Amino acid sequence: MIRAVSLLLVLAVCAVRASATEAPTLLQALHPGETFHYKVAWAVLPGAGEINIGVTNEALDGVKRLKVTTTTRTRGLAHVFMKFEATGESYFDEQTGRCVLLHEVSLVKKKVSEHFVTFDYDKRTALYAPGSWTSESRELSMPAGQPVDLITQLISTRAWNLQPGEQRDALVLFDDEFYELTIHAERYENISTPLGDFRTLVLVPRMEKTPPKGMFKRGSSVRVWISQDERHLPVRFEVEFKVGTGTATLVSYTPPTGATAAPAAQPAPASDAADADSRP
């Protein structure tokens, strides 16, 4: 059970082709000043962990970049049995929206892991350096697309404006492996969260273009709920394992710097109840 919780948290630190039109870039989905704070629950452990995501502008090698920082950790009883802490830093080109550097470091029990990844989009390769910049690096063949970690990719879907039945492809990087995913818009659903009641669109990533591997091969499934108000917030993530389900729920959100706060969520219309599942 605790291992499954850590796997959900790992997702946070580990080119999109539209079915009809090109997908918006990450620059349209995340903006400087935005923060997202999630609490992670697992079965009887409501406070199993937390995920924090922040967006800033920061110089990298003298060039202004958009930086997305994700920090995750177990808490409470889960932290006692499986100490897990991780930080992921992704730097994006402010013109193209492409990731230029991904840096991840994690602590599982007493083991520390760290790696850096840079991307060459002309050659379609990535340079993976475990440990530090001075360690021996190796070249990875990069499939078509613009790679990011899974959580950043799922958050980016808030700018896609998909409708149920539509889909887009996405390239995700887990450590040193690329996953070619197809993200499906499945249905609308009404849900309740600490931030209010939301009308949401449920998105589900699947491995369809290549043989499933990793968590997808083991039968796990991932879902994200995107609010259908003007903020398009990713209000919930869920990872379903054979042994249970881990859920990350948005408990606080900060809008972009200089933005006017959007109105609070309102209860979903009663007429939508037939196709919605209201659950905390």
Automatic annotation (TrEMBL):
Residues 254-280 are annotated as: Disordered. Residues 254-273 have a biased composition (Low complexity). Residues 1-20 form the signal peptide. Pfam families: DUF3108 (PF11306). Keywords: Signal. This is DUF3108 domain-containing protein.
